[in-house]
Design brief:
five-stranded mixed sheet, alpha/beta, Glutaredoxin, 4 helices
Length: 104
């Protein structure tokens, strides 16, 4: 499944009302670890049709970053049934992403 851009306008439909788990990457273009996280997440998204992967640019979507208390990036939050179910801060490798979704 392809990654999607999450904004304040589509957050409810893509995340809160999703019928599958949603892994959100809070990131910024200037963030080196975020740029390193991007290909790992893209590969993860391609391998998993059972998890929606979204990206929130914290510079463009400040309200969402504030709403979820994002203090460091990259921050990954896994939503299940419209609620945050797990969170990881910092660069995550593929094995960590796999473990994150199996913890549910």
């Amino acid at each position: 499944m392809k990654e999607i851009v999450i904004t304040g306008e589509n957050f409810a439909s893509e995340v809160l009302h999703s019928d599958m788990p949603v892994l959100i990457d809070f990131w910024a273009e200037w963030c080196g670890p975020c740029r390193m996280q991007a290909p790992v997440l893209a590969e993860f998204a391609e391998r998993h049709d059972d998890v929606k992967v979204g990206k929130v640019n914290v510079d463009q979507q400040r309200a969402l970053a504030v709403q979820f208390g994002i203090m460091s990036i990259p921050t990954l939050i896994l939503f299940r049934d419209g609620k945050p179910a797990a969170q990881r801060i910092g660069l995550q490798d593929a094995a960590s992403l796999e473990q994150l979704i199996t913890e549910l």
